[in-house]
Amino acid sequence: MRYSHQREAIKKIVQNTNCHPTADWIFNQTKIIIPNISLGTVYRNLKLLEEEGEMNTIYDGNIARYDWNTESHDHLKCKECGDLVDVHLVHEEFTSKVKRKFKFDVDNVEMTVIGTCSKHA
Amino acid sequence: MRYSHQREAIKKIVQNTNCHPTADWIFNQTKIIIPNISLGTVYRNLKLLEEEGEMNTIYDGNIARYDWNTESHDHLKCKECGDLVDVHLVHEEFTSKVKRKFKFDVDNVEMTVIGTCSKHA
DNA sequence: TCTATAACTAGTAATAATTCCTATTACTAG
DNA sequence: CTAGTAATAGGAATTATTACTAGTTATAGA
């Protein structure tokens, strides 16, 4: 993959946030550095970065959010504040259980737990 | 909620399929019975039916799919054939574990296991 | 049965999220 | 350095969904 100023900027922005930004948020942040960048470039590079294993796409309802945390993990989503928090819930034995029970080869588990966080209980 | 011919048709169509149809698929099926139905009507009624607890919305990447199975359940998604199969993987003890560990009140768990089904291994 | 009314509809326009297309640019080999 | 070419960029187009409006229909009560 060839070097690109735009891609580097996008990568840094995502890596320096703890929220799980949408493409639009990343686009607006990148515009501060590269004012004439286009949204298409943001999407394309996010996809490229994901393919390179530098990033993860998570779906919050039907909108994509991007996560620099590429370790396998899950999310707690508070319906009050919308906060999305990283947690590790699905373990190795789960994968082998699914394999055994359903003859299904697991690549990846996407889990979002929806509820109320301690701040809003 | 008042009776509506259109809503009844939509409900029957979703309840009689084992696939997890998109709004567009449901729209096309409903058109066979009610040729001049509009896509907006389909979306509005799917939302109403979900609020009534007659249906569930699941998100497959960034498109919505509808599921008559309102029991809490999970999905196996084959990356080869795109098939989405209902399974029951998340149990009661999981919910209480999350509550204990993260002080997080669980309403609902959305889990999709992505991998390869036995037909495409 | 008839009427009032509030929920509903089709159709269209708007919005939001994402992908596609074509000119431009960076890099490589000569 | 220059030409060739493949990756990249910006903007237009597409897709999915929601909002709006004017007309229609189910249903409760007179």
Question: How is this structure best described in words?
Answer:
The structure is a homodimer of 121-residue chains. Chain A has 121 residues and is an alpha+beta fold. Chain A has two domains: 5-67, Orthogonal Bundle (Arc Repressor Mutant, subunit A); 74-120, 2-Layer Sandwich (Dna Ligase, domain 1). Chain A is 38% helix and 26% strand. Chain A has helices at residues 5-15, 23-33, 39-51, 92-102; strands spanning 56-60, 63-67, 74-78, 84-87, 105-116. In chain A, the strands form two sheets. In chain A, strands 4-3-5 form a three-stranded mixed β-sheet, with helices on one face. A two-stranded antiparallel ribbon of chain A has the order 1-2. In chain A, a hairpin with a 5-residue loop joins strand 3 (74-78) and strand 4. In chain A, helix 1 (5-15) crosses helix 2 and helix 1 crosses helix 3. The radius of gyration of chain A is 17 Å and the shape is globular. At the A-B interface, helix 4 and strand 5 of A face helix 4 and strand 5 of B. The structure holds a DNA duplex (30 and 30 nucleotides).
Looking at this protein, list some descriptive labels.
DNA-binding, Dna Ligase, domain 1, alpha+beta, 4 helices, three-stranded mixed β-sheet, 121 residues, globular, two-stranded antiparallel ribbon, homodimer
